[in-house]
Design goal:
Length: 332
């Protein structure tokens, strides 16, 4: 085999994302069971949710191509703190690293071609309740894998700004409310003191605002390793939609760049009806530059922000109802 590891990753990424590959998708995750006994126990459960390959989709590579996935499997990393805890969360992958070198993890449930991505903690420890919510959502789907439609892959990125999380909690990976201390405002930024939700390529400015406070949007769009990792992940996965949890403006804000992006509005309204949050076509409290959801609209990827009601609660029932509607909407 003369292809480089990167080329294999791209090839496998294409197989996973670009095709509706029943057999390959079912088979590819299996080597990850070598990572730990707990993952080995988990994967058959997840695999059971994958529908048999329709006869019309047999043209994709068969099991003979499976050795090519080995490089991807090697990317699966355990969190340093607890391999056992990590393994219980599903098929996990490190999608990048923060400015200070902390892993950004993605947890995947299901192996369908329609990808739904839920992102917590882009504002780090300042909005730590969004990270707790994302981990709670991971627990829910670990316990209820049958809720994932066979044609859906649900990705949960619980902590998109692990530097900011660490600033407030002193913890990498999962934490509890009891770990939160100090001035949580300091946990909004990454290790370069950049507001990551001012660093995306829609109406980007080197300085943005957060209320009346001037914040850094980075030296260029995607100058930060966290946002660059998210961009790479989104453009590779081409998800059906992406949700970002923030707190605490209490509402749903539609991702649009310049003009209203109707697909974002449509899926936001679905989530709004199920959850009870009010849907707003734009955030009007102050002018937001370089927003992640807005940039996704430029890539024709529907996206919206859910602002929780408080800085400490998770609005669990509301958000579970919303996520289940997303699964229903994109499932078949
Ligand atoms: Zn926020």
């Amino acid at each position: 085999m003369s292809l480089t590891r990167k080329a294999w990753q791209l090839l496998v990424g294409f197989l996973l994302v670009g095709c509706t590959i029943g057999q390959a998708a079912v088979s590819i995750p299996q080597p990850t069971v070598t990572n730990s006994p707990m993952e080995a126990a988990l994967l058959p459960t997840l695999g059971a949710t994958v529908a048999p390959l329709p006869a019309t989709q047999t043209a994709v590579p068969t099991a003979t191509a499976l050795p090519t996935i080995t490089p991807v499997v090697s990317n699966v990393q355990a969190t340093p703190s607890s391999t056992a805890t990590f393994a219980a969360y599903g098929v996990a992958q490190t999608i990048g690293y923060s400015a200070n070198g902390r892993a950004i993890e993605s947890y995947r449930f299901g192996f369908g071609s329609q990808s739904i991505v839920l992102v917590g903690g882009i504002h780090g420890g300042y909005e730590w309740n969004t990270i707790v919510l994302a981990y709670d959502m991971i627990d829910y789907f670990l316990a209820n894998p049958d809720e994932i439609p066979s044609n859906v892959s649900l990705y949960i990125i619980p902590s998109a700004n692990p530097d900011g999380q660490f600033t407030v909690t002193g913890v990498d990976g999962r934490f509890t409310a009891g770990d939160v201390s100090g001035d949580i405002r300091l946990g909004r930024f990454n290790g370069n003191e950049v507001d990551l939700n001012r660093n995306f390529a829609c109406d980007w400015q080197p300085e943005g605002v957060w209320g009346e406070t001037v914040v850094s949007g980075g030296v260029a769009p995607f100058s930060e390793p966290e946002t660059a990792a998210l961009r790479t992940f989104f453009l590779r996965e081409r998800p059906a939609m992406v949700l970002f949890w923030h707190s605490k403006a209490d509402g749903i804000y539609v991702g649009s760049c310049e003009n209203l992006f109707q697909p974002s509005l449509e899926i936001a309204e679905q989530y709004g009806r199920a959850s009870g949050y009010t849907v707003y076509e734009e955030f009007s409290a102050y002018h937001v530059t370089g927003d992640a959801s807005d940039w996704l609209a430029t890539q024709n990827i529907p996206s919206f922000t859910v602002e929780l009601k408080t800085r400490s609660g998770t609005d669990w029932e509301m958000n579970l109802a919303g996520v289940l509607v997303l699964l229903d909407f994109y499932g078949r």
